[in-house]
Write a structure and sequence with these properties.
The chain has about 575 residues and is an alpha/beta fold. The protein folds into 3 domains: about 5-25 and about 150-255, Glucose Oxidase, domain 1, CATH 3.50.30.10; about 35-145, Enzyme I, Chain A, domain 2, CATH 1.10.274; about 270-575, TIM Barrel (Alpha-Beta Barrel), CATH 3.20.20.60. The protein has 23 helices and 16 strands. The chain has helices spanning about 35-65, 70-80, 85-95, 100-120, 125-145, 165-170, 190-200, 210-215, 235-255, 285-290, 300-305, 310-325, 360-365, 370-385, 400-420, 435-440, 445, 455-465, 485-500, 515-520, 535-540, 545-560, 565-575; strands at about 5, 10, 15-20, 160, 180-185, 205, 220-225, 230, 270-275, 295-300, 330-335, 390-395, 430-435, 450-455, 500-505, 525-530. The strands form 2 sheets. It has an 8-stranded mixed β-sheet with strand order 1-8-7-3-4-5-6-2. Strands 9-10-11-12-13-14-15-16 form an 8-stranded parallel barrel, surrounded by 5 helices. Helix 4 runs antiparallel to helix 5 (about 125-145) and helix 20 packs across helix 22. The protein starts with a strand and ends with a helix. Bound molecules: phosphoenolpyruvate (PEP) and magnesium ion (MG). Magnesium ion binds near residues 435, 456, 458 and 459. Its cofactor is Mg(2+). Pfam families: PEP-utilisers_N, PEP-utilizers, PEP-utilizers_C. One of its GO terms (biological process) is phosphoenolpyruvate-dependent sugar phosphotransferase system.
Length: about 575
């Protein structure tokens, strides 16, 4: 049956392909008594053999596509599977208690998991607990004859359908096969949406009901530019989507002509167009899209992609690679922003009711738990500074005291390295993200002490409007053009300029084609966005006159009461 759904357009592009359901299957079972315990043991052996073969395959694929280090987590799983003591206890449980293999497996693995989890100040033991959970689930699935989804093993063209995708699920998607993804929940600035843009995978989030409407094997037509999905489209509908895909490819080819062009407005004013990255690998996209700088390097992915804390040396190598890759152009590296939707299993953060308002980012760095981690990162950054044009940025700053404490730690590590004779650049700028309204309001005070601001609208909007950036039900309140947001942004830019500092923006609003004219008019100095938005923004800026945009910004700030009025005014000025 043909079904049409609408969601939030999260990453440009169009695709028509078979659906791949990335949803957890039902693994419920009942405990039953069995007479033939030998048969139960044979079922268990069969499930163990299948699990081993499957894990071996996943491990090999991970080693090929992600590297040996990432593949090692599967070695740990394979070790659990071949642990004679645990397997022996499961079989013993079957024979002694005459119960089915599912129940015996659960009892024994739960006992081990509980034991490891109880050693709660030991990260290694926590990981063992997580490994056993994972393996137990795989064996159980084989006992129940259900298939666990496995995004890393996709080997044909598909559209991935999921309730939600975490940033680490998204990182595993192979863009050669995954032509698009569609989720029930999420917003345009969820990290999975941001990653989809950097991977250039068309995506639609927040459809609310895609997993309920789609069965494995259904055909999906996806238009990530406007947020439309059709389940089992007619031939005509599919052809329409294919046409839209072609038109988008032509448009992209036009933008690509601007790759080496300067970013100047129609009246000749230059703006810096930068790109956001998550790993050194993303530099390819930065260069392909002609970005002039890296305006945000989200270093937390370095931590998330590693089974344990990355060492100072590992970090130094990553930062150096990015600085050298940018050959003297500015690189803004943000210190780790763990928390919110970016989890780090080995850090064992407590479960929180409101993770976006909780213990995250600089709050962790400045606490006892994060002290070592933060200093290690600062040292790695300072050492890497000799290889390029480094700017360091602290995330989630709410108070001046936080900035001063972080800056002091930075100065301490800097002095230690100088005493050790390490070469460090003299020109490192140290700035902050403005993503908490308190800092935006107090920008005049901050501006006296920082070297720069970068406005993180992804969070600034959610905190100002009290509307979760990942919640599709309140996405109507997530309003970048609301006059309240515009006032905050204007205050930040003016405060920076009053102290001779620069103000950039690294939230998704910087690449939002409706917002760009306003931001040009407000005098934002640097625009940092998903690399794939750089060329269309350069193309738009070429058509704008700064004097007209200044008038637009002034009128938007003075005359408009609502977001709708602002959008209408922008349309008048730009078209
Ligand atoms: C922001 O909040 O705007 C930002 C750029 O940071 P992140 O999206 O990583 O929270
Ligand atoms: Mg943020």
């Amino acid at each position: 049956m043909v079904e049409m759904l609408k969601g939030i357009a999260a990453s440009d592009g169009v695709a028509v392909a078979k659906a791949y359901l990335l949803v957890q299957p039902d693994l419920s079972f009942s405990k039953v008594s069995v007479e033939d315990t030998a048969a139960e043991e044979a079922r268990l052996d069969d499930a163990l053999a299948k699990s081993t073969a499957e894990l071996q395959q996943i491990r090999d694929k991970a080693a090929q596509t992600l590297g040996e280090a990432e593949a090692q987590v599967f070695d740990a799983h394979l070790m659990v599977l071949s642990d004679p003591e645990m397997i022996g206890q499961i079989k013993q449980n079957v024979t002694d208690n005459k119960v089915n293999a599912e129940a015996a497996l659960k009892e024994v693995t739960d006992m081990y998991i509980g034991m490891f989890e109880a050693m709660d100040d030991n990260a290694y033991m926590q990981e063992r607990a997580a490994d056993i959970k994972d393996v137990a689930k795989r064996i159980l699935a084989h006992l129940l004859n259900v298939t666990l989804p496995n995004p890393s093993m996709i080997n044909e063209e598909v559209v991935v359908v999921a309730h939600d995708l975490t940033p680490s699920d998204t990182a595993q998607l192979d863009r050669n096969f995954v032509k698009a993804f569609v989720t029930d929940i999420g917003g345009r600035t969820s990290h999975s949406a941001i990653m989809a843009r950097s991977l250039e995978i068309p995506a639609i989030v927040g459809t609310m009901e895609i997993t309920a409407k789609v069965k494995a094997g259904d055909i999906l037509a996806v238009n990530g530019i406007i947020g439309d999905v059709i389940v089992n489209p007619t031939d005509d509908q599919a052809a329409e989507f294919v046409e839209a895909g072609k038109a988008y490819a032509e448009q992209k080819a036009e933008w690509e002509k601007l790759k080496d062009a300067e970013t100047v407005t129609a009246d000749g004013k230059h703006f810096e167009l930068a790109a956001n990255i998550g790993t050194p690998k993303d530099l390819e996209g930065v260069h392909n899209n002609g970005a002039e700088a890296v305006g945000l390097y989200r270093t937390e992915f370095l931590y998330m992609d590693s089974p344990d804390f990355p060492t100072e040396e590992d970090q130094y190598k990553a930062y150096k690679a990015v600085l050298e890759g940018m050959a003297g152009k500015p690189v803004v590296v943000r210190t780790m922003d763990i928390g919110g939707d970016k989890e780090l299993p080995y850090l064992k953060l407590p479960h929180e009711m409101n993770p976006f308002l909780g213990y995250r980012a600089l709050r962790i760095s400045l606490s006892e738990l994060g002290d070592d981690m933060f200093r290690t990162q600062l040292r790695a950054l300072l050492r890497a500074s000799a290889h390029g044009n480094l700017r360091i940025m602290f995330p989630m700053v709410a108070t001046l005291k936080e900035f001063r404490t972080a800056k002091k730690m930075y100065e301490e590590e800097r002095q230690k390295l100088i005493d050790e004779g390490v070469e460090i650049s003299n020109e490192i700028q140290v700035g902050i993200m403005i993503e908490i309204p308190a800092a935006a309001v107090l920008a005049d005070k901050f501006a006296k002490e920082v070297d720069f601001f970068s406005i993180g609208t992804n969070d600034l909007i959610q905190y100002t409007m009290a509307a979760d950036r990942m919640n599709e039900r309140v996405s109507y309140l997530y309003q970048p053009y609301n006059p309240s947001i515009l006032r905050l942004i204007k205050n930040v830019i003016d405060s920076a300029h009053a102290e001779g500092k620069w103000a950039g923006m690294c939230g998704e609003m910087a690449g939002d084609q409706t917002a760009v004219p306003l931001l040009v008019g407000m005098g934002l100095d640097e625009f940092s966005m998903s690399a794939t938005s750089v060329l269309k923004t350069r193309s738009l800026m070429k058509r704008l006159s700064t004097t007209d945009m200044q008038e637009l910004a002034k009128r938007a700030l003075e005359d408009c009461d609502t977001m709708e009025e602002v959008v209408e005014l922008i349309e008048q000025y730009v078209n």
